[in-house]
Amino acid sequence: MALLNYSVAIDVLEADSGADFESERSSVAANRPLERHRHRGTNAVCGPRSVWQPYDRPGSVSKTGILLGFSLFLLLPIAGMLYFTFRSATGGFTVDHWLALLDASGFSFMTLSEGLLNSLMLVAVTLAIELMLVIPAFVLISVRFPRLNRAMGVIMLLPIAIPAIILVVGLAPALAFFADIVGPNTWTLALAYGILALPFVYTTISSDLRGLDCRTLAQAAESLGAGWLRTLTDILLPCIRRSIISSMLITTAIVLGEFTIASLLNRTTLQTALISISKTDVYLSVIVTLIVLLCTLVTLFIMATGNRPSRKES
């Protein structure tokens, strides 16, 4: 009996020592740094397998299919519009509709030129308001008053939640006040367009500011003797230049595509001019819409390629 108890004790001790050895070996393997080695000219890491396995990634066929489907979804309406502009009323094809765009003596050209110039002026004024007031205010709140970020996120959503007709009713007295001072100019619509663009500008800028330790950068600049204006222009704004360019592009698209406020306030912009032209010449309206759409797509492509980080930055 004593011999049996002795053998059982020996087995227990061996099991405990084996378990301790296995746990020690696993802890050493877990704490061992990942070893890098070169394999066929690339850096590989020896370690646990990644959660994202190669068979989970889309292959070349899937990528091509997705790209082709998106291209068809985007280009088919444009091709239909282009085909429509060359159609003749008799059933053939003609370029007279495109030549009518250059007729400076027609009513359509005068209305279109007035609306386009007014829209470009509104774009310039709205971007100036955004660059000089809105974006510096957002950066100031993130640096000096970070506790207000949550409240600002809620307030900035109001222009999307409030219908445009209610915004017009609320902004009409303010615009009338400015009209009494500076006259009934179209550029006063930039105040309303700036409010419409606030949610998109704030979302774009705040997403970039969250990944930037702007408070530390501002404190470091101030410790070196820089004032707030120099800290803003030389340090903080260059760090978020990509989001600034994106917000400017979004603002431009909003101003060029807005119709409700301009129509209710009886102002001539690009969209209201297109509606007026479509009542007399639907072909010319489609041509101008096609040109604006293509210019927007080209601008988006240029911005996307220009904002791509280089290898040195990455």
UniProtKB/TrEMBL annotation:
InterPro entries listed in its UniProt record: MetI-like, MetI-like_sf
Keywords: Cell inner membrane, Cell membrane, Membrane, Transmembrane, Transmembrane helix, Transport
Signal peptide: none
Transmembrane segments: 66-86, 120-143, 155-179, 185-205, 244-262, 282-304
Single GO cellular component term: plasma membrane
Protein's membrane topology: Multi-pass membrane protein
PROSITE patterns: ABC_TM1 (PS50928)
Pfam families: BPD_transp_1
Recorded superkingdom: Bacteria
GO biological process: transmembrane transport
Localization terms from the record: Cell inner membrane; Cell membrane
Residue ranges annotated for the ABC transmembrane type-1 domain, each copy included: 116-303
Family statement drawn from the similarity comment of this UniProt entry: Belongs to the binding-protein-dependent transport system permease family.
Name of the protein: ABC transporter permease
